[in-house]
Amino acid sequence: MKQIAKLICSVSVCLLTGFVGSFSTMDSVSTWYADLSKPSFNPPGWAFGVVWPILYVMMGVAAFLIWKKGIRSRQIRVALGLFVFQLVLNGLWTPLFFGLHMMGLALAEIILLWVAIVVTMVAFWRISKPATYLLIPYILWVSFAIVLNASLWHLNK
User: Fold this and answer.
1) Which helix or strand (DSSP H or E) is residue 106 part of?
2) Averaged pLDDT for residues 78-102
3) Contacts of 77 (CB under 8 A, 6+ apart)
4) CB–CB of 134/59 below 8 Å?
5) Residue ranges per domain, the chain?
6) Nearest CA to 86 among 60, 48, 104?
């Protein structure tokens, strides 16, 4: 029962990050973002609403796989600390981009997020290979998001 509570907590925290961030997009998506020049590879709006919840669940499961090993080990505490750090960065991008319309700063922030995800993956690898594998779609999506953010910034300077 304790492990199920940890799993629910891990997934919920990740989903909550996305939910809180979504408040920044509500007004901007149909107004500011709709008026931006977009690259040809810009995904349809519904794609984000499908992809992100799946990624947040996978991230939560990955964190759970690390957490369930206990937190007595310094290695595990560091890995979870890195995970929390990248999750905070994940949550900050949306208000920067959609809330404040600061595409350049959001680009710098998402590059920092990418680095934090890679560092987290390295830390997870040493503890749980499956946890690391669960983060691969996330790093790939954030890599795409960097290219998209950079393109939007370039097209709308």
Assistant:
1) helix 103-125
2) 97
3) 71
4) yes
5) 2-155
6) 60
Q: Confidence class of residue 118 from pLDDT cuts 50, 70 and 90? A: very high
Q: State the pLDDT at residue 30.
A: 82
Homologous superfamily of 2-155: TspO/MBR protein (1.20.1260.100)
Q: What is the C-alpha to C-alpha distance for residues 110 and 127, in angstroms, rounded to an integer?
A: 26
Q: How far apart are CA 28 and CA 36, in angstroms?
A: 11
pTM of the prediction? 0.95
Q: Count of alpha carbons within 13 Å of 43, Cβ hemisphere only?
A: 14
Neighbours of 46 (CB within 10 A): 8
Phi/psi of residue 115, nearest 5 degrees: -60, -45
- In whole angstroms, give the CA distance from residue 37 to residue 86: 29
Q: Residue 107 and residue 125: Cα distance in Å, rounded?
A: 27
What is the distance between the alpha carbons of residues 75 and 132, in angstroms, rounded to a whole number? 15
